[in-house]
Write a structure and sequence with these properties.
alpha+beta, single chain, 35% helix, 179 residues, disordered N terminus, three-stranded antiparallel sheet
C-alpha cells in the first residue's frame, strides 16, 4: 500500500468531523484513508484546533553566542580557510561548535561560499630526461610503532623512485644506514 502524507486527504472540515465523531479510530481511518495515529492526533486536538500547524521550529537553537559567531566570521574573512580547515581551527578554542554549527554561522552571514581562487599558474615544464636506473631515495623517520611482538621502536620509511620509469619502491627498516 502506498503511504500518503496524513494531511494530504484531510481538510479542516474533515478533521473537525473526525474530532467530533464517536466511531472507532479504525473505521474512521479506513473511511478517510489515513492512519489510526492520525485519527487519534485529530481527536486529541479537538474540533476547535483543526487548522494546519507549521512544522518549522519557531526559533533556531544556536549553539554559539554573538561573540563566537563574530569570531568564526572574522577568521573566515581573514584566512579564507575552507569549511573543514576552519572547523578544525575553531574547535581548538570553541570545542562545542561542530562542523554543522560553523556552516550555519557562515551561511547566515553569506560567507558559506569562498570566492574562486586566483592562482598564478607557473608555466608547464617538462621533466628532465634520466637514464634508466637513476634512483632517488628518500628516508623518513616514522613515529614509534608497535610491531607484532608489541615492542615499540623507531622505524624508517625508505622510498626509492626510478626517475626514468617512475617506478616506486617502499620499505620499512629498523635502522637508518646506507646499506
Amino acid at each position: 500500500m502506498l503511504a500518503i502524507h496524513p494531511q494530504a486527504r484531510t481538510t479542516p472540515a474533515v478533521r473537525a468531523e473526525i474530532a467530533r465523531s464517536h466511531e472507532s479510530s479504525g473505521v474512521l481511518a479506513k473511511r478517510y484513508g489515513v492512519s489510526t495515529e492520525t485519527i487519534r492526533k485529530w481527536r486529541k486536538r479537538g474540533p476547535d484546533a483543526c487548522q494546519d500547524r507549521s512544522a518549522r521550529p519557531h526559533k533556531l537553537a544556536w549553539r554559539a553566542s554573538d561573540e563566537e559567531r563574530a569570531i568564526v566570521c572574522a577568521l573566515r574573512r581573514a584566512t579564507g580557510f575552507p569549511l573543514d580547515a576552519l572547523t578544525f581551527v575553531v574547535s581548538h578554542f570553541l570545542p562545542h561548535l561542530n562542523r554543522d554549527a560553523v556552516y550555519r554561522i557562515l551561511k547566515a552571514e553569506g560567507l558559506n561560499r569562498l570566492p574562486p581562487a586566483e592562482k598564478a599558474r607557473k608555466p608547464n615544464g617538462s621533466f628532465k630526461d634520466y637514464e634508466v636506473g637513476f634512483i632517488h631515495v628518500d628516508v623518513k623517520r616514522l613515529p614509534k610503532l608497535q610491531d607484532r611482538d608489541r615492542v615499540s621502536r623507531k622505524r624508517y620509511l625508505y622510498v626509492a623512485i626510478d626517475r626514468a620509469t617512475r617506478y616506486v619502491h617502499l620499505a620499512v627498516k629498523d635502522d637508518e644506514t646506507t646499506a
